[in-house]
Amino acid sequence: MTGLGVIRNLGRNGVDVYCILDKKDEAVYSKYCKKYFIVPEISQNKEKLKIFLTKLQSQLNHKAVLFPTSDLHALNVSNLKNETDSYLIPIADRKVLETLIEKKKFYQSLNRKGIPHPTTYFPENVRDCTKTKKRLLYPVFIKPSMSQTFSRAFGKKGFVANSEEELLKYMKITEKHGIDPMIQEIIPGPPTNHYFIDGYLDKNSRPVALFARRRLRMWPLNFGNSTAC
Questions:
Q1: Domain 102-185, CATH number (from 1.10.8, 1.25.40, 3.30.1490, 1.10.760)
Q2: How many whole angstroms separate alpha carbon 46 and alpha carbon 69?
Q3: Residue 36: enclosing H or E segment and its boundaries?
Q4: Which pLDDT score is estimated for 93?
Q5: H or E segment at 143?
Q6: CATH code assigned to 3-98
Q7: Domain residue spans in the chain?
Q8: How many CB atoms within 10 Å of residue 163?
Q9: pLDDT tens-digit profile of 8-39?
């Protein structure tokens, strides 16, 4: 769910949309964006978010709905869910969001429930790789627990290691930047092998809407975001 998509869908249905961002992006140029606010670090700073929302509420004549449109925003907004009644916040509790957003917790939950997924290892540091490397079949994907934080630093979703030498090199980079890494098996195949179920669940976890899609292409080519479905 991107900010621009939310803006368009709400705007087309006559809903006034106000955008709150860390920095300006394409969403603010939508004709449906009534007004936008640039607040540095608001996606990760709870106090900045709380102070800004309190000021904004005084300018509105009704209770507004908050739609976080990124992982970082969702986690930060969830901190306020039980601290304010000035806004409607239609998201799950933070513990649920952390399991879905933080990849390490997500894959560990799959392990506990016995759900099939690519083989994944969770080294704590470079030394741990010496225990893992004998079980690896290259190439492997070194990915972060928090995708958006990693993407902001490196402009990609992860590193592909084709050898033990590359694995250790990339692990040292993640350690240097304080990134919590995972080493994952790569399942080969084109983007058209990717299928998704998107949906919306109500407060009782009942599916209200479901949408199935197949990825046709993505960018960057091997490990990117969908550009057509």
A1: 3.30.1490
A2: 16
A3: strand 33-38
A4: 87
A5: strand 140-144
A6: 3.40.50
A7: 3-98, 102-185, 189-229
A8: 12
A9: 999 999 999 999 999 898 889 999 999 999 99
